[in-house]
Design brief:
CATH class of the largest domain: Alpha Beta
Strand content: 15-25%
Bound molecules: L-homoserine
Number of domains: 2
Radius of gyration: 20 Å
Shape: globular
Strand order of the largest sheet: 3-2-1-4-5-6
């Protein structure tokens, strides 16, 4: 049987992490897939990449035909891949463009899509679901919330459960910064630099610090649950300039909350006996309030190269299973 072809768009930290993980595990998992194309604005258009491409990709120089950003939709459309994996950077001011155009183009040209980019999902959820229905192709985006740690996908294991509200720590960078400030007395700037070195922060780290990244994740979770929260009108505050000494013996965390009527992201002081107060470093947490189970709390890594690659692998296996039926 012919291998399922994968096109990767965006070959930075997450793209490379996924390529590496896939190369490592596909034999063991019996996945009949092959990455046939990579499109990256710095590294070019690479056809049939070999595993050795990883060493060269890290340096960020051109490895294939030069690609202009406005050519990317045409290249996606012309690609004969079965699945497109989209890993470009989050851009909030353009409301998730150009990634939304890449995803829409892939669906229209008959490809299933996987993305780790929060922008197109948070800003264009309805349009993507409509395109998915119209073209009969799947849209998967597990990596947008809590990387490879189960988050909204855990609801697939809980048929009939109704989510009444959720509360969580959804940004790894700010949680890492706060932990380093509390535990090691690091300054805000030094802790941020470390988070950037470890690959947790967004290309534009103000998206993390000012709470927008967590807000988009709150919107994505809400949309999956069926609530229609939007960034406009949502209370969003981050941790820029925070003084952790001002909270007494409470532990301040950047908390995301939503129920069907409201959604917000802001620093909240937690009691030391609250389990969320002990979620440290780049860990994320999601506490779901369900009518059937009461409170269910999931804690796990929410950012990083391989942590996010795990989410893409989860989505890929999900799509491959669906393609078999
Ligand atoms: N910058 C994000 C974070 C990456 O720190 O959580 C994962 O979405």
């Amino acid at each position: 049987m012919q291998a399922i072809r994968i096109l990767i768009v965006g070959f930075g930290n997450v793209g490379q992490g996924f390529f590496e993980l896939l190369t490592r595990v596909k034999g063991r998992l019996g996945l009949n897939v092959v990455v046939t194309e990579i499109i990256d604005r710095r590294r070019g258009h690479i056809i049939n990449p070999k595993p050795s491409i990883l060493n060269e990709a890290i340096q960020g120089r051109l490895l294939g035909d030069k690609v202009e950003v406005d050519e990317i939709p045409r290249l996606i459309s012309e690609s004969n891949a079965d699945i497109m994996c989209e890993f470009t950077d989050l851009v909030v001011r353009s409301k998730g463009e150009p990634a939304f155009t890449y995803l829409a183009t892939a669906l229209r040209s008959g490809k299933h899509v996987i993305t780790t980019n929060k922008g197109p999902i948070a800003f264009h959820y309805d349009e993507l679901m409509e395109l998915s229905r119209r073209y009969g192709k799947l849209v998967r985006f597990k990596g947008t919330v809590m990387a490879g740690t189960p988050s909204f996908n855990i609801l697939n294991l809980l048929p009939g459960a109704h989510v009444e509200s959720f509360m969580g720590i959804l940004n790894g960078t700010t949680n890492f910064i706060l932990t380093k400030m509390y535990e090691e007395g690091l300054s805000f700037d030094d802790a941020l630099r470390l988070a950037q070195q470890l690959g947790y922060a967004e290309a534009d780290p103000s998206l993390d610090i000012d709470g927008l990244d967590a807000a988009l994740k709150t919107i994505i979770l809400s949309r999956v649950i069926g609530w229609k929260h939007e960034l406009e009108g949502m209370e969003v505050r981050g941790i820029r300039g925070i003084d952790i000494r001002g909270y007494g013996d409470k532990v301040v965390k950047l908390i995301a909350y939503a129920d069907k009527d409201k959604a917000y992201v802001k620093p909240i002081p937690l009691d030391k006996n609250d389990i969320l107060a002990h979620v440290s470093r780049n860990l994320n947490a999601l506490r779901l309030r369900l009518d059937t189970l009461g409170e269910l709390t999931i804690i796990g890594p929410g950012a990083g190269r391989y942590e996010t690659a795990q989410a893409v692998l989860t989505d890929l296996v999900d799509i491959l299973n669906a393609m078999r039926h």
